[in-house]
């Protein structure tokens, strides 16, 4: 069961969510409730939930700010935002900051809840699979820290999240800088484009898995962040000069 925290200032809304979760037959267990974002952040730190169901508009601290602070602290829980029709733009903004999705408060039913939470469950399962495989990943890349703290922050973020969907915009939002400026500055400070840097990190992880496990090429590609098998093979060959299967055979021959 995935541990779930509800952050919602309206008590009746929290009660409705509890009932829906109980009826939905989904692998999520509600482990706590908070009435505003500030309390929610404290409970995230304390309870370490797998997923947070958060309203957007709340007193003290809103849901989007809660999501931002959680990400800045490196808290990896998934977020699903609760929103009314008039708040849709805020929900879209939350998705840009990494929320897994949103639920429409006024029309939420069992089918809608199941659909949204099945997506979250798939994300959590993938993250868990990745954590179990971490022992095969290089502990760190060869990239030395730069003389620019924000670029170092991006490098650290990529190191922790390279297997996830990372975009230039999401990284620019992370450090609150213009995307084009971030792209140019990153290349200047590291000698590599962001795209090539992320690809190289994924390929390095894939090489370890190919050499040390019997997992399929397709499974390894998805684990390190490539959603498409053909693209994984193409990028791997571009960096290594051989396909993943050829690389695996070479490593077995060496051993």
TrEMBL record:
The modification 4-aspartylphosphate is found at residue 55. Residues 152-250 form the HTH araC/xylS-type domain. Residues 103-133 form a coiled coil. Gene3D superfamilies: 3.40.50.2300, Homeodomain-like. PROSITE patterns: HTH_ARAC_FAMILY_1, HTH_ARAC_FAMILY_2, RESPONSE_REGULATORY. The keyword Transcription regulation applies. InterPro entries: CheY-like_superfamily (IPR011006), Homeodomain-like_sf (IPR009057), HTH_AraC (IPR018060), HTH_AraC-typ_CS (IPR018062), Sig_transdc_resp-reg_receiver (IPR001789), Tscrpt_reg_AraC-type_HTH (IPR020449). Residues 3-120 form the Response regulatory domain. Keywords: Coiled coil, DNA-binding, Phosphoprotein, Transcription, Transcription regulation. This is Two-component response regulator. It comes from Paenibacillus glycanilyticus. The lineage of its organism: Bacteria, Bacillati, Bacillota, Bacilli, Bacillales.
């Amino acid at each position: 069961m995935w541990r779930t925290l509800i952050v919602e200032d309206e008590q009746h809304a929290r009660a409705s969510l509890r009932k829906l979760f109980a009826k939905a037959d989904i692998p999520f267990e509600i482990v706590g409730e908070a009435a505003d974002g500030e309390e929610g952040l404290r409970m995230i730190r304390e309870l370490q939930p797998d997923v947070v169901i958060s309203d957007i508009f709340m007193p003290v601290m809103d849901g989007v700010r809660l999501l931002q602070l959680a990400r800045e602290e490196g808290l990896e829980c998934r977020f699903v935002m609760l929103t009314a029709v008039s708040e849709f733009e805020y929900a879209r903004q939350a998705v840009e900051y990494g929320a897994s999705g949103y639920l429409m408060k006024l029309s939420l039913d069992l089918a809608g809840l199941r659909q949204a939470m099945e997506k979250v469950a798939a994300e959590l399962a993938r993250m868990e699979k990745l954590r179990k495989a971490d022992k095969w990943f290089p502990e760190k890349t060869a990239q030395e820290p730069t003389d620019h703290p924000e670029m170092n922050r991006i490098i650290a973020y990529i190191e922790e999240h390279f297997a996830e969907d990372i975009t230039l915009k999401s990284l620019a939002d992370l450090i609150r800088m213009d995307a084009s400026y971030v792209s140019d500055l990153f290349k200047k400070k590291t000698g590599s484009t962001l795209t090539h840097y992320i690809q190289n990190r994924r390929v390095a992880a894939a090489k370890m898995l190919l050499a040390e496990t019997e997992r399929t090429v397709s499974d390894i590609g998805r684990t390190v962040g490539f959603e498409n098998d053909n693209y994984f093979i193409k990028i791997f060959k571009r960096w290594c000069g051989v396909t993943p299967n050829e690389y695996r055979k070479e490593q077995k021959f060496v051993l």
